[in-house]
Amino acid sequence: MSTDQTQDPSQGKKLALVTGASRGLGGAIAEALAEDGWHIMAVARTTGALEELDDRIQAKGGTASLGPLDVTDPDQMAHLAQSIGARWGGLDLWVHTAIHAAPLSPTGHIDAKELANSVKVNVNATAQLIGLIEPLLLARQGTALAFDDPRAGQKFFGIYGATKAAQMAMLRSWQAETVKIGPRVVIAEPAPMATALRGRFFPGEDRDALADRHAEARRILDTL
């Protein structure tokens, strides 16, 4: 990453880190923030999808830095946090949308690999990221934005519902702990959207009746 301020288009802009930025709500929020003049640090595993996001951001006159990284890799995430601190000195906003959505299945037939991957992404990675990103948010009196999707106890959602609930329990504890000292932690519950994630859960659903992810991204950001 270049630190030459005369050539760095991110200088003078608010900085948003979006984990899980390549598609879905994360991508829509990244685009909306960039359109509003924020510089986006976009993180996801899929390089091609990140490059497509960057093309859309640039087409709207925005700027982004791309991080084709795995949020479950502790070394990669530690390096990311160190790089953000060295280049920008802190974060104004962290938007966490990275999630592993295990296929629906009866609880008695839970796949051990899917369960392990869900715990790794939804729980372990979130815990590590909170520890790494909290100091960066405090440096700029920033905000963390996460998203609830309450499925715990619903039939066939054994893996996703349990690991998403664990993630939310952790985030809500962090939210309660930081009310007075910061950073601000906001947990939103998006309306049902026509995303690939929801399509895997409800393949026969009428997608025309669902919210547009870009409109929902704007609605959520307006509440901040």
From TrEMBL:
Superkingdom in the source lineage: Bacteria
SUPFAM superfamilies hit by this protein: NAD(P)-binding Rossmann-fold domains
Keyword Oxidoreductase part of the UniProt annotation: yes
One Pfam match: adh_short
Keywords recorded for this protein, A-Z: Oxidoreductase
Entry similarity comment: Belongs to the short-chain dehydrogenases/reductases (SDR) family.
Protein name per UniProt: Oxidoreductase
